[in-house]
Amino acid sequence: MIIQNLYLASESTAPADWCYPGLYSYFSRLYYVIDGDACYKENGSTVRLKPNHLYLTPVEQEFDLYHDPAHPLVHTYAHVMTVPAVHTLVEIEVVKGTPLADAVALWRRHIFDQNKELQISTAQLVVSLIEAARRTAAPPSIAEQIKEYLNGLGANPFHMKDLSLALGYTREHLTRLFLSAFGVTPRQYFNARRMDLAVKKLQGGASIKEVALDLGFSSDHAFSKAFRAHFGLPPQKFLLSRSQNDIAPKA
Questions:
Q1: Sign of CA dihedral 157, 161, 166, 172
Q2: Is residue 250 part of a domain?
Q3: What CATH number is given to the structural domain containing 214?
Q4: Is the pTM of this model over 0.70?
Q5: Are residues 24 and 130 in the same domain?
Q6: Region 68-76: what's the mean pLDDT?
Q7: Where among 136, 165, 193 does a domain terminate?
Q8: Angle formed by the axes of helices 160-167 and 142-151, to 10°?
Q9: How many Å from the N-terminal Cα to the C-terminal Cα in the chain?
Q10: Which of 136, 154, 186 is where one domain is finished?
Q11: Separation of alpha carbons 40 and 190, rounded Å
């Protein structure tokens, strides 16, 4: 994994209003958690950010980040664009005495350095060791394999029979495992991702008819009905409410 660009890097205690609902970006957030009580939430599934752990957030996927102001997040962070891009949340424990721990210490030592090349090179070392740790880790669970399959569909249609054939388990077994791991069914997860993609297309200027066609809906009416069922508002009213509640980006 290569860092193609680094936009922001620092170490800080997050302010009381550190709360980001509906984050969606084309870069990943690289966090090393020092202290605090913070959470990552995606499609109803919540991950508590643990001290002495590294995290890489996914791109092109909506998620929430927030913390408890009474126990604020203290973290070293960088906003990075990587190749290949990160598509699922990465969580790695930093074990004392390992090369990864040494790399994190070096990264933190130079986090305020004015030399951007040095900032990038130390962050790159951390990211490279994260990738190495992931390659040697245990194989992903079946639920995680389902998630990777769904994330890879993009705007393509989803059928449980295809998932069943791809992973070699019955539909019922796959649904049960995914629901237990993430709190939603594969279909609900896929629909949520498809609606997030619809929002991005609409925000990019596409018409309702174009989005309905791109995402495989039978008609623009069918798309609008599904959109309202998911978000509680028709597409145009949802976009208007989103624009009125935009929050400026923070760390």
A1: positive
A2: no
A3: 1.10.10.60
A4: no
A5: yes
A6: 96
A7: 136
A8: 130
A9: 22
A10: 136
A11: 19
